[in-house]
User: Fold this.
Amino acid sequence: MLFTFDVSFAELWDHLCHAGYWLIPIVGVWIIIYAINAWSWKCVIDGVKSPDEHVSNWRIYRLTITGYALNYSTPVGGLGGEPYRIIELSKNISQDHAASSVILYAMMHIFAHFWFWFISIFIYLALVAVGDLPMTTMVGVILALIFVLFLLAFYFFAKGYKHGLAVKGIRLAGKIPGLKGWSRRFLERHSGTLHKIDRQIANLHKQNKRSFYSALILEYFSRVVQSSEFFFMLLLFGIDCGGGWSGLALTYLHSILILAFTSFLANIIGFLPMQLGVQEGGIVISTAALGLKPAVGIFESIICRVREIIWIVIGLILMKIGGTEPSEYMKQKKDEVL
Assistant:
């Protein structure tokens, strides 16, 4: 993409240098985004842990950042940080509660993604209605197919929250060639734990609705805040839809659509580390669909990579410092066992 678009390296470097102080809000807004993610995860943890178990807010925030740093740099659909979170959180609460809270939060994170993409369809249609965006037959068919896909996804999520997904997930993994034997052995060894996790998943939805919906709303809101990253970049390139409050509001809606399409494409093809190429393609295609030059998408994608690398480094540093000792509750439990 870098070699085929009509963008010289001199122009590319000039735009990166032009970013200047704009990199501060672009990178800094993720302090807020991760704080919202951590708050959402805390709601889930509070819904599954025992009253005598305790995890500090800083520890949850730190594990949120480090978990996403691993997600960015590993494949498997951005789930590389979940085993790490389970291991670390098990130092503060029981392993069953740690595993169920991490699985529940991962489900909530994906569920909020679907809601973000779903609502973005109506944002696009609203902008079509006011004459800001075009509507072609192909776009209409694609939106209709995605709409049906999301309705099916909501159905499966509802089933998962009602009955749990741990056991079904391991059984589903057994259908992948080469994993059948591993799946059977894993179910035989950990059947009791997996069923317990499924019960905790179901209980959060049934008995702790406040925690469930608080986590979902916070996760959705974090996507809206994340859109400000593209909003800042559009302003950096002088794109403000005419300026004024109405122009800035329209620009922010465009930013939401760019993030929605990019994240949708990146999650469909989620087996590449750091979503290499997929994220760049999604940003370029989405910006071009909004009537902007593809070169703008190239610049946006590279600035996004700079931000990702900065936060990966921060996450890896946080893995090495601060709060790795077991909590007093877990020390007491260990002493009781001994």
